[in-house]
């Protein structure tokens, strides 16, 4: 679900004691706007398609040249049959393609992974209903947003400001939250929705007409005056209903899985190497013992997650000192938990490029100058582990570690075979680069532990994945 700002869900709060009273001109304006958008009431069956662009610095292949994540969104809904279909696709550095469908019929909502990249063949029930689906679409479709806002206006919760070419409706709640809805009057169009207290704004522009429906083709979401998401609505049409084949789960999918957070799990992989499963839900962290103390491999998400991991380590290896923490690369989700380690004086191990990114990361700016770093180079050995920093298309600096004694590799974002070991129908460029590298270097491994999802990728599975897309 592509939620950005609270819109319809917040409207139920706009009930307060009488404060405003509409004058004749204001009533006339409201009637004009309401009549203009009255046709929306009949849009019970609709198909809407967007293209999206979102620039990212700390999910980029090069943080000095922010990467543009390209997305596709397709919405279809049938209010009469109480059904909907949602498809979203996102392309990340290294040609990783996240591609999922959400379908809803007979009161049930099911999510599945179209290319099997993240969830494999497993299915998931979602607590996500038709109302919530419509709310998400309303955030990006001006005519739905305008109709919904106008339906909730009263002289008790709304102040109207009439300007020469536009009108601003300010809705107010008991908690003093304000939302400003700006309409142009010639032609009539909702041009922006702004939350001044949150410094969040959506701007609608470039109206076009399809099937006698005029809508904003450009939708830009801003936070703190920075563009966060740039959408282009390129197709809108009325439909007689949703093609029922689109609501069917493809053959070969299953079973259903629960998304309940599992407790952390401790697994001994070797006499000095331990695996922690279910970190931040579906991630994995390794712990290596050496004469210098413990090295933790992986610091995902947040300081809260790192605090939980350290407590878990102390439970299983009491009185052992954590000397260092390693990250594969400096993307925000991989380095988000470094703060908790570094502020305890624990040294951060990474390649030099990743260290440079960590130092530039805004969330660390106030404390990073006090942190300790250990830079590793390509094929460097440290505490009975070998670090490799191969060139790749996912990040200019990205490494993995090989433990020669146990023949185990720990990596993040080099290889993303799902946890059920089914073979994705799309192989990212960086995955081919990684497997080719392992073969050229003749790295003899028994198991690849992924930072994400799958902690036991065997050579058999890796080779089968490769051969399903490329010649061996």
Shape: elongated
Under CATH, the homologous superfamily of the largest domain reads: Lipoprotein localisation LolA/LolB/LppX
Percentage beta strand: 35-45%
Count of all domains: 2
- Percentage of helical residues? 10-25%
In the CATH hierarchy, what is the architecture of the largest domain at level 2? Clam
Q: How confident overall, as mean pLDDT?
A: 93
Poorly predicted residue ranges? 1-19
- Distance, first to last CA: 38 Å
Note the total helix count. Answer: 10
Per DSSP E runs of 2 or more residues, the count of β-strands stands at 25
CATH topology of the largest domain: outer membrane lipoprotein receptor (LolB), chain A
Largest sheet features = 13 strands, antiparallel
Strands of the largest sheet, in order across it? 6-5-4-3-2-1-13-12-11-10-9-8-7
Q: Write down the Rg.
A: 26 Å
Q: How would you sum up this structure in a few lines?
A:
The chain is 19% helix and 36% strand. The protein has 472 residues and is an alpha+beta fold. It folds into 2 domains: 10-247, outer membrane lipoprotein receptor (LolB), chain A; 265-467, Metallo-beta-lactamase, Chain A.
């Amino acid at each position: 679900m592509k939620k950005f700002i609270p819109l319809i869900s917040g409207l139920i709060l706009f009930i307060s004691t009488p404060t405003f009273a509409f004058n004749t001109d204001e009533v006339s304006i409201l009637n004009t706007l309401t009549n203009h958008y009255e046709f929306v009431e009949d849009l019970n069956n609709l198909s809407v398609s967007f293209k999206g662009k979102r620039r990212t610095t700390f999910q980029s292949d090069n943080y000095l040249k922010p990467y543009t994540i390209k997305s596709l969104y397709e919405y279809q809904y049938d209010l009469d049959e109480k059904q909907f279909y949602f498809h979203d696709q996102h392309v990340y550095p290294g040609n990783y393609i996240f591609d999922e469908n959400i379908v809803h019929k007979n009161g049930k909502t099911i999510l599945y992974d179209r290319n099997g990249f993240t969830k494999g063949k497993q299915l998931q029930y979602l607590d996500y209903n038709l109302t919530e689906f419509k709310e998400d679409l309303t955030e990006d479709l001006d005519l739905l947003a305008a109709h919904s806002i106008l339906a909730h206006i009263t002289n008790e919760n709304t102040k109207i400001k009439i300007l020469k070419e536009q009108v601003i409706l300010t809705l107010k709640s008991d908690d003093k939250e304000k939302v400003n809805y700006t309409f142009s009057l010639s032609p009539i169009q909702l041009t922006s929705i702004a939350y001044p207290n949150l410094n969040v704004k959506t701007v609608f522009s470039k109206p076009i007409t399809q099937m006698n429906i005029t809508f904003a083709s450009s939708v830009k979401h801003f936070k703190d005056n920075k563009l966060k998401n740039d959408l282009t609505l390129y197709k809108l049409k009325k439909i007689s209903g949703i093609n029922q084949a689109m609501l069917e789960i493809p053959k070969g999918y299953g079973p259903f899985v629960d998304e309940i957070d599992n407790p952390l799990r401790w697994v001994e992989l070797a006499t000095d190497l331990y695996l922690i499963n279910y970190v931040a839900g579906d991630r994995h962290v390794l712990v290596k013992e050496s004469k210098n103390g413990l090295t933790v491999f992986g610091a995902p998400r947040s300081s809260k997650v790192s605090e939980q991991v350290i407590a878990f380590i102390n439970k299983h290896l009491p009185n052992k000192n954590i000397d260092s923490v390693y990250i594969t690369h400096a993307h925000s989700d991989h380095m988000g938990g470094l703060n908790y380690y570094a502020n305890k004086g624990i040294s951060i191990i990474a390649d030099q490029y990743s260290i440079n990114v960590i130092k530039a990361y805004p969330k660390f700016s106030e404390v990073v100058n006090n942190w300790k770093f250990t830079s590793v180079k390509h094929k460097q050995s440290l505490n009975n582990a070998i670090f490799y920093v191969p060139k790749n298309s996912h990040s200019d600096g990205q490494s993995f570690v090989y433990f020669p004694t146990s023949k185990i590799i720990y990596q993040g974002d080099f290889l993303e075979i799902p946890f059920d070991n089914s073979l994705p129908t799309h192989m990212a460029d960086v995955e081919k680069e990684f497997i080719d590298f392992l073969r050229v270097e003749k790295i003899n491994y028994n198991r690849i532990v992924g930072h994400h999802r799958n902690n036991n990728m065997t050579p058999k599975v890796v080779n089968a994945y490769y051969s399903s897309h490329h010649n061996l």
